[in-house]
What does this fold into?
Amino acid sequence: MYHDTNIKKEGVFDSPDYFLNNVDKLSSLEAKLLNERVEVSKKYNLPKNLQFCTECVISNQRPRIVFDETGVCGACKFWKKKFSQVDWAFREREFEELCNSFRKSDGSYDVVVPFSGGKDSIYVARELKVKYNMNPLTVTWAPHVYTEVGFRNLLASVHSGLNNVLITPNGHVHRLMTRISTNLMGDPFQPFIYGQTLAPLKIADFYNIPFVVYGENGEVEYGGAREAEKARGFDEEEAKKFLHSGIAIDTFKEFGFSEADLFPYRGPSLENIQKKGIKRYFYSYFHKWLPQDNYYYSVEHTNFKANTKGRSEGTFSKYASLDDRLDPYHYYFALLKFGLGRATSDAAHEIREGLIDRDEGIQLVNKFDMEAPSHATEKIFQDYTGFSKDEMVQCIEKWRNRDLWFKSSDGWKLKNQVI
Ligand SMILES: [Zn+2]
It folds into this structure.
């Protein structure tokens, strides 16, 4: 007789165990790297004198952010412009014309939307379909370890009426690359980012869909290089820069990865981008981008669900970046390197959106920013990467920026937090 009471209630999402079989130990090259100290401020060219924006809670330690002479960050200035100076009706018409120029009439896909199944990509894909009468193909690069709510939201969005391609890279390769990236760059997410940014372009190439629409331009919305503000998409020159920026994928060859291992991470050839005229645009350039509105939109149209735990680790927010169990480490390494955790970036954009004031933002940062990943997340990260507990500690200390942190009697603390 079948006794379902004997079935353990843990599932692949609650207690993922599908990657426990075959992770390699650290190679001698990785072990050597782990022992190397990094001078973080120098590496990222961070300003010596720490300064917080007088309007939000971000500091000048965010790489590439620009502050003006009155102490206001570039992202805050951009948002003010967004609410006051931009002619949105004009940009809307520009976008409509773009759609008209790419729209196909033979039933094939005419636009690629990089798609996590999160609130922002749902908004972009559905608007393209419903408002602009396009035939979008959404392209998802799988997270490292799906959360239940993240996978559920992806399915809900597909079933609400979207076509989707889900690309999941070889898990064994991806785990090792993630471990090496954490050690080498102080960010577990670089291999994921290759896929997230380049795989949709490769699908655009395969399916001959030259129109690719991303959601937001992070460099502009959250503070980055000044020239980014003008970016509408990219031309050939930008493509060249884009495909070869950051740490080259080829770096991973030094660790023994083959061309076949690295193939999923590579974008299309520059030649094909040019020949097929593949263009990338940001929806946020043409439309007033309000993350909270995107959330309500997704709830209404695709039955999107927020974090079932009430909030995400390391922050107070509940509806952004929900799909990956390893997410807390992406933000935690930014905290170690730049003194800026997840609550800081969430509070900063909520202040700019006008949802909270600066004092509330400061309180939220002081309450949540320093929260380390939970024990459950720590265990998943170690199982996934094959880092031992000691190696993990070593890696964290390798990337902790001593210019920003000091060791007190009850552990490491930031020398300055926003006040
Ligand atoms: Zn600011």
Observations:
- The beta strands are 111-114, 136-141, 163-167, 211-214, 279-282, 405-408, 411-414.
- The pocket of zinc ion is lined by residues 53, 55-56, 58, 72-73, 75-76 (CB under 6 Å).
- The two ends are 64 Å apart (CA to CA).
- DSSP finds 19 helices and seven strands in the chain.
